[in-house]
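Homework help thread (please don't just give me the answer)

Our assignment gives two proteins as sequence + structure token strings and asks us to describe the second one. The first is just a warm-up. Here they are:
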Amino acid sequence: MKNKFLIIPILLSLFAHPLLSKTTITLNEFNGGSFSFNLGFNADWMYGSRGDALRMGGAMSTLDNTPSFTSYNPAVLCYLKSGTASMGFVPVSIISSDVFYGMAKSFAGNQLKGNTFNDFLKGTVNDALNGSNGPLKDITIAPGVTTNVDNVDASFGQTTGLMGFEIMAPFAKGQAAFAFARENKASVDLSMMLTGLDALVNVKDPSQPLLNIDMRAKLNAVLNFRADNIVTSFGVGRKLTPEWGVGCVAEHYDSQFLLDGKAEADGTATYSGTTMSFNTNPGNSLEQSANADINGEAWGLRFGTSYHFLKDSIELGADVSVQPQINYRGTPEVMMHTIPDTIDLSDFTKTQLQPITITSGSLQLKLPSFIRLTAAFKGSAVINYTHYFDSYRLKYNNGTDNMEFDLQMMDSANLGFNFGVFQIGAGAIYTRVYEKTNGVQKNIAWLAIPMFSTGAVIPIGDYLKWEIDLFVFPMSVLKTAITYTFL
């Protein structure tokens, strides 16, 4: 009778796991290779992309000197004194791994390993790899063999570059205006690469003397992920009286997630002089791949009104935002090549293709709708109160699993001060965070999300303004906009 055994190659855990209780695996050689990880991110969902509100803790008024219709009361379009065109961008990434690690190092001192973030991460990865609960815990390490990653190159930080643009233009002798903007409200750019991982293992089973197999494999893997949430806005405003105006903005949301991942192994398994090779040949490969193009789109509406007293000295205003639910389309595709679960030792077989079927389901993102009340004095002191009607909600349902994560913002208050060149403000959002799994709800936290920002508007001649956000919590730092005024 032919002898048979079971092997499942787990590439990131050194290719093998003992499925038989008496099977022993010995690691005779190991080269950890190099691992790189880079993450960029950007988010404007709490403050908007530009305007005085971004530098005043989210507090906004139609009396502001440098307004932005994309995050303001749409009635701001009724009071434009001249047309403007703005471009917003992040010139340098201050929110970054190096900055955060430097700050942590100054507080923790010698408790953190390494002088750089990469040194710290390399030490953390090696500790996890060699820990008592790490992936090598069931494998015997041969004397003299070290199991460390050779090099780690990792970073994360705020994305730099152009974030969006905005145009506002009055007409009808300044009694009305229209506007257009296109902004990337939230983005994530992730890349990971593993190269040069090389290992030699030996598999034995004392109860089967003939079972003595050497396996050598090399692994290279790459993963790229990109997420963008583009908002295109169209606005119009009109004065009904010299003091009273109304406005409306239509927003088109275009959200996309792209995934492209691939891993390739090249190696051999040898038993009694018989060798099985698995390589990059399509007919005998251990290639793994994952691809996804998931996208969704929807429309939102915002309405607003504002009344100015005493020749634009005092404002009372209100605006309502009706936000959509984005329904995503697309199903990930995952392909795997594996060693067969059972291998005839006298007749090695080739690897087998194993597509992984992902159950089709619905993925939804709900954006919160709200009403906001505003009171301001000459644009120098602004207070807002906002009540939210629903949550930021991410929900997935495939008929079997029904999962939901909610960031339920309920009420917020913001207070900002404008001193002409310099602005500052703060606020807080009363929030509940919870999750649901198949109808069972679990509260994670009740908290007040703090908001704080400060910055300046520096005039450059008669037509240009340089808007610089010195600090915005939770995002971002040193965000800049160049605004041109058509006098």
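The one we have to describe:
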Amino acid sequence: MTNDCFVSQEATDEILLRVTNVCGECYDDLELGNMIHYDMQNYRYLCDCCQQKLCSRMNEACEIVREEDTGLFC
């Protein structure tokens, strides 16, 4: 599933300087040489931690699966 939802690669100078140097979810710094993941559904780079969290909530079609509603207005 993760291969269809994300493109994983090592952070390069080009990406960090020309595209982004922060995670699109938590806004933590992306460091040169770290593994980063491009979210194909939301068009953003994610750190390893955020990619794993998002991946755990996705189905095979790369859709976020809602957990049970927690209240009347959710």
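TA reply:
I won't write it for you, but here's a hint about the kind of observation we're looking for: Residues 48-56 form the longest helix (9 residues).
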